[in-house]
Amino acid sequence: SQQGEEDPQALSIQEGENATMNCSYKTSINNLQWYRQNSGRGLVHLILIRSNEREKHSGRLRVTLDTSKKSSSLLITASRAADTASYFCATVTSGAQKLVFGQGTRLTINP
Amino acid sequence: NAGVTQTPKFQVLKTGQSMTLQCAQDMNHNSMYWYRQDPGMGLRLIYYSASEGTTDKGEVPNGYNVSRLNKREFSLRLESAAPSQTSVYFCASLPPGSYNEQFFGPGTRLTVL
Prior knowledge:
The complex is a heterodimer.
Chain A: E1 5-7, E2 10-14, E3 19-24, E4 31-37, E5 43-50, E6 55-58, E7 61-66, E8 71-76, E9 85-92, E10 100-101, E11 105-110
Parallel strand pairs in A: 2-11
Antiparallel strand pairs in A: 1-3, 3-8, 4-5, 4-9, 6-7, 7-8, 9-10, 9-11
Chain B: E1 4-7, E2 10-13, E3 19-25, E4 31-37, E5 43-49, E6 56-57, E7 64-68, E8 74-78, E9 87-94, E10 103-104, E11 108-112
């Protein structure tokens, strides 16, 4: 069974708007990662947040982590058509070297 | 650096046929992984190898075998393909350390008829 549950499953917004995706997980983690997948392609790493961090920024990306609620969010600001992709959260538990993926959010940016 | 490469890119098999998916990385990473991705789903771990000479089962290992041939190469074998194994298969590698990203190959799209 997959660790992460993502919400929403699909999101469609206008270019320039902000997009927020949420991820919930079940067990204690060492870190949580977000990946992007363009249609028919492999996954590309976006950002990693450690369990002792609450917020992290990378360019137009902002990730938050609430370990008490076992949840994370990914915010993409000022969206662009090129941001159209599926976004996955993945968790790593302490001592493990394995990623456990959520089902993903399919983001569509309309021009 | 080529990163993580996978061959073939596409494959069609008949039920009962066997095949091996190849994966290689040139980043000197210790850990390597095989995932499958079904339509509308996230990736599920099939097998992984934390280091050369070791392999471990992931979430969905049934029907698959793996070989960590050397540090660079990690192959996935389907001995008797079934339609339920129709999927996209991704290989990934991980540098040493506790807080690192995995690097993914472009995937192999497999259809079993």
